[in-house]
What does this fold into?
Amino acid sequence: MHKEFLMGNEAIALGALAAGVNLAAGYPGTPSTEVLETIAKRNPGNVYVEWSVNEKAAMEVAAGAAYTGARALVTMKQVGLNVASDPLMSLEYIGVKGGMVVLVSDDPGPISSQTEQDTRTFGMFSKVPVFDPCSVQEAYEMIQEAFEFSEKYGTPVFFRPTTRIDHGYEALEVKDPEEYHVHTYEGFVKDASRWVIFPRLSVKNHALIEKRNALLSDTFSDYPGNRILAEQEKGCRKGIASHGISFMYTLDSLRGRNARVLKVATPFPFPEKLALSFLQGLDEVLCIEELDPVIERALLHICGKYGLQVKILGKLTGDIPPSGENTMEIVNKALGAFLGQAEEKLTPAARELPEPPALPVRPPVLCAGCPHRASFYAVKQAMKGKKTIYCGDIGCYTLGNAQPLDMCDTCLCMGAGIGIAQGVGHMEPDTRCFAFVGDSTFFASGITGTVNAFYNQADMTLVVLDNSTTAMTGHQPHPGTGRTAMGQVVEKVSMEKVLKAIGLKVVETVDPLDLNAAVKTVKRVAEEPGVKAVIFRSPCIAISRPSGHSEVDQEKCIGCGKCIRELGCPALNLASDGKKTRIDTALCTGCTLCEQICPAGAISGGKKNDLLAGKGGEGHE
It folds into this structure.
């Protein structure tokens, strides 16, 4: 054993390695991403690791490994579970031979997601057991236990950390690589009665699943992660039930106050016997949880089942906010009200500290030099004066919705922009429909939408924003990059060939930072009938950052503000006179976009200045 200061995701990864995981597959999604990255980085050499094209593929790859008896881990965020739910629902009926842990990182807030979703609720819906850690230390230990439970009961299990666990840090004792469990497995044994899902098998296994989960409810009542913290004074009539990071907030806020506490680490199947013991002798219980009232509903059910006269408070009663992330302040306030203590008495030490200054507000914005800004600007200039709709997608380029670009009219989920553009086009034939999708998203969920568009004879322009990486989640590789999660160099999957194989006749690739060429390409392609595509290809500046930068000649600058007003690049701002433009050289990447639209030719020096000589200054009015 040795001590390390670890991020939660790193601790989870090391826990999986210590458990003898044989295969890890996933799709990048904040806040889960670093788990798979750490497994790849700390791989002792006997673990297969892959970034799959999407969560559904990852789930199926992991299931195949678990069919052989191997231990498999699949990672994703909560919205990724939506994509993976089809195989998961059937997999629970089939079961697994080796331990299979489905790590789903929930994002209360949401901090970096489209939605707030509670995987505990999905666990009940899918009948899949759920493990819910409350700290980095517990996450490290619990994922090892999750593999054991999964293997023992022949079922996939959910492991549900949230953002504050994933991205929190803690110093903890971890095993040395030579102490890792080496998991050997039998291999796949043919047995159609077990591995081929038919209605008869589903009916039989459904009954077995219900029996198993009833047994697990009793088993989880004895699981050390679930426990009752005795009240500080005998005769206490109030209780607190909590889980995850909210449990840690509860402990911090509860110091010195009299209450019985129930910690729930396995919200499904719910540890009923333990909860029944907790409820005995109490008058009321406050449930502190995020996001759904899972514990609250379970305790209400138990009270009704056993005729207990205990008042259960929480989200359903308005004592805890019904949505959003819990904070220390929220928990403090709720506990103060519940325990009959004024809020100001809860944290006397905090009152002695001065209020910190308010943090400056920084709106989300595309990076300086981001090729997506040039792509959006080119399409906007090409389609000026025409009735258009711009359907966006999930990624950095969602920020194309911000002013002054204003190029994202819709955004639903990964790959949906392609389908939405088709739906609008079928109803409004006079609208020019554009669908923007990133290169990673194209492979993850854009191909099927494009096939649908071609097959159903839609009239739309697909715009692929290819920056050669999965930028938003930390620059993971994908099929178009020619690299794998294990560092192998492989042949790239060509988007051009894929699109042409689908049947598209018009597929053009252009550098968006060559603005004249980009605008002309969009104008030409958009006039073609049916489904056509423009691929804007230029690397993300975070992986290929130029060394030069542009500069403004203050004598030539006429103070028109066009570069600032139309591009919204964070490197562009007003000079000290409040009229002319200046460039922040610490941010500027020398992409030359501002040089190309300056009507006075006052900006120069960028990386592509020579390439684009004679093409700037026209302004594309």
